[in-house]
Amino acid sequence: MSYEIIKKNYDRGLWSKPMVKTAVSKGVITPEQYKEITGDDYVS
To answer: What whole-number distance in Å separates Cα of residue 24 and Cα of residue 4?
Structure first.
């Protein structure tokens, strides 16, 4: 799993914000990347 795959899946509607948030908590992407993908600040 990578930032690019997560972003593509989010943009296509396959991933929700909570799913992207889980990727941050697991260390797959950074909080900054969460904001790039969703447009929202990451709040743990």
So the answer is: 14
Length of the chain: 44
Give the chain's domain count. Answer: 1
Instruction: Classify residue 44: in a domain, yes or no.
Output: no
Prediction pTM value: 0.90
In a domain, 23, yes or no: yes
Structural domain range at position 14? 3-38
Residue 1 has pLDDT above 90, yes or no: no
Q: What angle do CA 20, 22, 24 make, to 5 degrees?
A: 75
